[in-house]
Amino acid sequence: MHLTLSHLPSKQDIKLVYPRTPSSIDPNNPPWPAFRGYHTYSFAYATMGHRLPTILGKAIDDVVETLNQESEEDRVVDLVDCIKRMDELKEDLQAHAKLRPIIDDGEADVALWNKEIAKYFQGKDFMNAPWLFAEAYKYRRLRECFSVSKLWQQYDVFFRQKCDTFSRSGDAVFELSTRFVEPFKHKEGLSAQEKLDAERLMFLELTQICLWGNSTDLSLLINMTEEQIKSLQSTGGENLAATEKNILGNDMARLWEVVRDLKDTGGRIDFVLDNAGFELYCDCVYADFLIQSGLAKEVRFHGKRYPWFVSDVTKKDWNWLLNMMVYGHLFPKVTDEEVESLRQLGLRWKQYEKEGKWVYEQHPFWCTGYTYWDLHNEAPDLFLHLSRSDLVIFKGDLNHRKLTYDCAAPPSTDFEIAIGPMASAAGAPRICSLRTIKSDVVVGLGPNGDELADKLDKEEPGWKISGKYAVVLLSEGRPGEKVRFA
Fold first, then answer.
1. Fewer CB within 10 Å, N side or C side of the chain?
2. Residue 82: which of 101, 69, 98, 66 has the closest Cα?
3. What are the Damage-control phosphatase ARMT1-like metal-binding domain coordinates in residue numbering (predicted)?
4. Is the Cβ–Cβ distance between 350 and 327 less than 8 Å?
5. Is residue 156 part of a domain?
6. Residue 109 pLDDT class (50, 70, 90 cuts)
7. pLDDT at residue 250 above 50?
């Protein structure tokens, strides 16, 4: 039977209102639409469908290599079980399996993970859950493959890769060590203003080195040649001047003013770290200058508690870097002077640790699926701790995705709007995001940002994942206000 109805009102064009109202925002419904693995137009699709299975396959190869070097039966049998669990995870990933709870493996984040899965992701799978959560969940499941074992709980499937990439970064490493081996000193006879100008120029150049050090992200550079790594890590002055035009949202001038104003009191600056190896080395060169110039009295580095997103910094990576600089033989074809410059630098950094000027920390929240919009609610102790910092620098793409809820906000969206409570909550610290753009979310490009992004979409498809462009974005926060929790 066919109904002929002519008096019903016609269908309306319904315009959705974004950002969503705060009360309707949750991990499955970010402020703007989420990127999900089945969105064929997004980097999420390439990541969930191709990159993550490839990364997992390489991780399995790494464990097999370790297995083949083992001799004790109980260690061999235990590691074989780890490989079986990795194989199951790979099958789940490729079959787009539903997200199951995390097994209680004694990690401090189990309850946070399982609460989030139960509240927001029941019945969701690897492809239809928001990409940010699904990708983080995959790395948490990879951790579980080892954390439930008897003898391999601390194993890092990415450690060899991280060390190897740093060992192939020699040119850039010595370019910096030979320049910074001597502690920062002003030339004789400079006026106070000239000294400040010299510090400003040094600060701006080091900010760029710290920013572009993020180019070497192992999860993206799975098959890179040595030459390609060298060109990415070129730290010469002309190269930096040329790359500044690629910083699409650039608050560096304001960032300098914030740091300059700390000089009289000597502030605390925090780095929420991204990649191990060369990027961490650049972060440390930057932090070294902040201490020497008196712009900071104390620098806190926040890393991950276990292997995360291939190249993220763990305590093991931190210790490895400092000890390799002082004692290592990573770079056989270099001069004695170059080796000594790296050793001196490493000794100075170790001394900062002994004196408490540098502090390394690893809060469980950094390895959860939550975005930083939820940091205030889910990790109030960490929010309170960060609120006492004069500036929190978030490094890299993943931290930027978590700050901005990794959703399809217009590129003209103001950074402070995009990071929600991290800018607006009482006591929110000043935040700077140093990020080379390697995924779909792009905000903070200013009032003409939408037009600029459209132009780049037409002229350079893939500009959002190439790492060619970057942002240096600052949020003033609400420092000094009393932190309140509901």
1. N
2. 66
3. 47-446
4. no
5. no
6. very high
7. yes
Q: Judge if 140 and 230 occupy the same domain.
A: no
Tally the domains of the chain. Answer: 2
Query: Which one of 148, 177, 200 terminates a domain?
Result: 148
- Which pLDDT tens digit goes with each residue over 3-22? 777 888 888 888 888 999 98
Inter-residue contact 457 to 236 (CB < 8 Å): no
Decide: 145 and 107 in contact? Cβ < 8 Å.
Answer: no
Amino acid sitting at position 66:
T
Dihedral pair phi/psi, residue 26, rounded to 5°:
-150, 175
CATH of the domain at 125: 1.20.930.60
Burial of 112 from C-beta contacts in 10 A (0-12 / 13-18 / 19+): buried
Q: DSSP string covering 244-299, please? A: HTTEEEE-HHHHHHHHHTTTTT-EEEEEE--BSTHHHHHHHHHHHHHHHTTSEEEE
Residue with tokens 């932190």: 483
Which tokens is 410 given?
Answer: 């217009």
Per-residue burial over 260-297, b if 16 or more Cβ lie within 10 Å, else e, is: eebeeeebbbbbbbbbbbbbbbbbbbbbbbbbbbebbb
- Measured in degrees and rounded to the nearest 5, phi and psi for residue 150 equal -85, -40
Give the predicted TM-score (pTM) of the model. Answer: 0.94
Nearest in space to 360 (alpha carbons), one of 410, 413, 319: 319
Give pLDDT, residue 457.
97
DSSP 8-state class, residue 13: P
Rounded to whole angstroms, the Cα distance separating 93 from 222 reads: 19
d(CA 165, CA 275): 11
Q: Pick left, alpha or beta for residue 277 (phi over 0 → left; psi -120 to 50 → alpha; otherwise beta).
A: left
The residue ranges of DSSP E strands in 173-245, in sequence order, are: none
Residues 166, 144 share a domain: no
Average predicted confidence (pLDDT) for the chain:
93
Q: Which of 375, 401, 342 is nearest to 133 (CA)?
A: 401
Distance of CA 372 to the CA centre of its chain: 12
Q: Name the residue range of residue 444's domain.
A: 162-475
**pLDDT value of position 219:** 39
* Burial environment of residue 459 by CB neighbours within 10 A (0 to 12, 13 to 18, 19 or more): exposed
Question: What is the model's pLDDT at position 244?
Answer: 84
Q: What is the pLDDT of residue 237?
A: 53
